[in-house]
Amino acid sequence: MAVDEIPVIDIAPLVARDPAGAAATGAAMREASERIGFFYIAGHGVPAALTQNLFSTAARFFALPEEEKATVKVNKRHRGWIGHGGAKMYGTAKADLKESFVWGLELPEDDPDVAAGTPLMGPNQWPAALPELRPALYGWYEAVVAAGHAVLRGLALSLGRDMDFFAKPFERPLARGSAIWYPPQPPDLGREQFGVAPHTDYGGLTLLAQDMTGGLQVKGTDREWVMAHPIPDTFVVNIGDLMHRWTNGRFHSNPHRVVNTSGKARQSAAVFFDPGFHAVVDPRDLLEDPAQAKYPPIACGEWVVGKFDKAFQYRAPATPS
Ligand SMILES: O=C(O)CCC(=O)C(=O)O
Ligand SMILES: [Fe+2]
């Protein structure tokens, strides 16, 4: 198992929009994206103190009594608390052993998209019992979205496009923040119990901060599971299914899973950085010869809603009692 199978890439030149360094940084991202679909980023500009504050504040949220957390139970817009049992990857036997709190781009009810009832868009839900949750999570989210834009600049350059190729489709992104809590896993739960069962991410890019516990595993090129060890002050970035399609299959949306065998609780926090609801993902945009496209164009919003409907218990149609 190669230790450097998942490379660490310093994206400072992309954060600074430095044309000389940006192309080489983008080329390193492209190499990792085509081979394994995962890389770490350093030099991302997200202050370590913001991530620490997110973890400590989220831990206080998860420690609240169930009835407090239930006041912000996940709603149809996919904002709020998802308790244990609420997320189950397709085709797996058991629900993931985790709980999470999910939020996204904050939009008022009178925003034209929200007023039109566009799925997944709208205001967030914040718990009255923990007013500091909102600034801790939202400040971190905005910094991570900015880092996500820097990553997109590198990927755009690596694909022979202008640095800002992805800026427009990722305007008003369906980016979701998720603070995740994995309880200690009892050893007698058997081999089928995962923190997160093997899956690919649905969208554009995922940027993930993890605490020092470890447990994230990535399919290696030799088909072994490779540990994505925690590296301080980095984010793990991975390619999602939409970016796989957009690049006509060149970038790899790689299966990964979480197994928390530490005997302790584990925390992670992700931004699932997906294009805007109305963005069209069309591989012809990134091909020299459009006739080579393997996938028809798809609308981002429809795709993401379709995936959510399968993965989350709360979206299942009510069964008549
Ligand atoms: O917590 C982690 O390390 C990864 C979580 C993950 O893969 C996901 O939520 O999609
Ligand atoms: Fe994932």
Automatic annotation (TrEMBL):
Keywords assigned: Ethylene biosynthesis, Iron, Metal-binding, Oxidoreductase
Domain Fe2OG dioxygenase as annotated: residue spans: 169-275
Enzyme nomenclature, EC number: 1.13.12.19, 1.14.20.7
Coiled coil, from the record: none
Pathway noted in the entry: Alkene biosynthesis; ethylene biosynthesis via 2-oxoglutarate
Signal peptide interval: none
A Pfam family this chain is assigned to: 2OG-FeII_Oxy
An annotated GO BP: ethylene biosynthetic process
Catalytic activity: 2-oxoglutarate + O2 + 2 H(+) = ethene + 3 CO2 + H2O; L-arginine + 2-oxoglutarate + O2 = guanidine + L-glutamate 5-semialdehyde + succinate + CO2
Known cofactor(s): Fe(2+)
Gene Ontology MF, one: 2-oxoglutarate oxygenase/decarboxylase (ethylene-forming) activity
Statement: the UniProt record of this protein carries the keyword Iron: yes
Homology family: Belongs to the iron/ascorbate-dependent oxidoreductase family.
PANTHER family: 2-OXOGLUTARATE (2OG) AND FE(II)-DEPENDENT OXYGENASE SUPERFAMILY PROTEIN-RELATED (PTHR47990)
Protein name stated in the entry: 2-oxoglutarate-dependent ethylene/succinate-forming enzyme
